[in-house]
Design goal:
Elements (H helix, E strand, L loop, with lengths): L5 E9 L5 E10 L7 E10 L6 H14 L7 E7 L3 H8 L5 E3 L1 H12 L3 H14 L2
Parallel strand pairs: 1-4, 4-5
Antiparallel strand pairs: 1-2, 2-3
Helix pairs in contact: 1-2
């Protein structure tokens, strides 16, 4: 893949059986008459619990090399993960990391639901709105 400037996204997700993965995608503007934005999934990587920053860094280096992505052409990486080793591996490559808004909201709302009074309030609102 030989492109001009590109953006990347790194999204953490869990399978139905609880296995955790990270999907890496590239986003770019196709150089044609239509100048369409395109997205391609580069890879989905299994997230072992014990993977450290060095392992993630090597995984990203191999991925970028396989797809001929030059770091100097990456404008930013939208990150939807809270794994410090993944974030550190990307930031050590001097990439600009942009937190994914939706992921951030999901994490924050999940934290709120841990408080019993919030859960009760939401249950009450749901019950009351059904009337």
């Amino acid at each position: 893949m030989s492109l001009g400037e590109v953006g990347l996204s790194v999204e953490e997700w869990s399978s139905g059986n609880g296995e955790v993965f990270v999907t890496v995608s590239v986003h770019y503007q196709h150089q044609s008459a239509d100048t369409l934005m395109e997205t391609k999934v580069l890879s989905t990587i299994h997230c072992p619990c014990d993977a450290d920053t060095a392992q993630w860094s090597l995984s990203f280096e191999n991925l970028f090399m396989d797809w001929n992505i030059k770091l100097k052409h990456v404008t930013a990486v939208v990150v939807a993960t809270t794994r410090p080793e993944v974030l550190r591996a990307l930031s050590e490559k001097d990439l600009t990391l942009v937190p994914c808004l939706v992921h951030s909201l999901q994490v924050r709302s999940g934290n709120c639901l841990q408080f019993m009074w919030v859960t009760r309030s939401i249950s009450c609102m749901h019950f009351c709105s059904a009337c």
